Amino acid sequence: MFTGIISSIGLISAIEHKGGDCRLTINTGKLSLSGTQLGDSIAVNGVCLTAIELGKQHFCADVSNETLSRSTLKSAVVGTPVNLELALTPTTRMGGHIVSGHVDGIGILTEQKPDARSVRLTFQVPDELAKYIAEKGSICIDGISLTVNTVNGALFSVNIVPHTLKETTLAEIKVGNPVNLEVDLLARYLERLLLGDKAAKPQPEITEELLRNSGFLDKGIH
């Protein structure tokens, strides 16, 4: 588990493609790995990865096909900057919110404008994630814990203060850039709880045929 408070900006220094997935080597910048052990979790742009090799200023981690398919790591190249955070410990200050490091999907920056000394960023999210995002709720963007300012359909905005701009990769983001999104964990569990006993049964895929058989479409229309 993580808090979404970034410790350092790292750099992808090597990418090794292995059997359909890949292994990343990441330079950790100012982040100290002195207390880190093999097998520990490290969040890389909000993606929880397991350290399989440790150096003084770098670590290596394998990235599965599942992770590549759901995150921006699939398009990472050598030299890509990444936000880093070590896993939560019992003594860690909870400055952000509970973050699992399991990316739900990819958002796109649609607008970027100054707001006093801060910057207001607006993102578009996949339609299936929009229901989990609420005004004044929490959202994790590239591993950064942020508060949602406004919501309008599949669009939401966040305010980035100067310190966050300085300490994260958001200082370099441009309109059209993709970001990793993790919605509030509580929203995910709440949705599952609301299913009640139905949660134990497979949920049918919503298709035109299902809608027609359920009476939502005219069976005579093709």
From TrEMBL:
Gene3D superfamilies: 2.40.30.20. Residues 1-97, 98-194 form the Lumazine-binding domain. It is an enzyme of class 2 (transferase). It catalyses: 2 6,7-dimethyl-8-(1-D-ribityl)lumazine + H(+) = 5-amino-6-(D-ribitylamino)uracil + riboflavin. Its EC number is 2.5.1.9. Keywords: Repeat, Riboflavin biosynthesis, Transferase. Pathway: Cofactor biosynthesis; riboflavin biosynthesis; riboflavin from 2-hydroxy-3-oxobutyl phosphate and 5-amino-6-(D-ribitylamino)uracil: step 2/2. One of its GO terms (biological process) is riboflavin biosynthetic process. Lumazine-binding repeats lie at residues 1-97, 98-194. It comes from the Bacteria. Homotrimer. Catalyzes the dismutation of two molecules of 6,7-dimethyl-8-ribityllumazine, resulting in the formation of riboflavin and 5-amino-6-(D-ribitylamino)uracil. This is Riboflavin synthase. It comes from Methyloglobulus morosus KoM1. The lineage of its organism: Bacteria, Pseudomonadati, Pseudomonadota, Gammaproteobacteria, Methylococcales. The gene is ribE.
